[in-house]
Specification:
With 95 residues, the protein is α/β, with parallel strands linked by helices. It has one domain. It contains three helices and three strands.
Amino acid sequence: MAQFVIVLTDLADTRHKTLPQIPAPEAEVHVLLLLVPAQPKDALLTIGKPLSGPEQFELRRRQVQQSMPWAVAAPYFARHLAGLFRRESKALLAR
């Protein structure tokens, strides 16, 4: 049975400066990461500079794409979340 997971995060709580490679789940699990901007002090600690919200999103989106290409990253204010899961499924089928 398919599982759908939504994670709301700023990715600033990680102890890693860059995300490690995370292997795809063996079961049918679909992950949607909704990214929120980190507080300025947290961004400074984890990124090294005080990036704006849109700059943080682009950086984190690229990091997620490299670390776990099987997951989808979207801004926290994204709508129609079910459509984002469908987009992810189509991308996986194309591989």
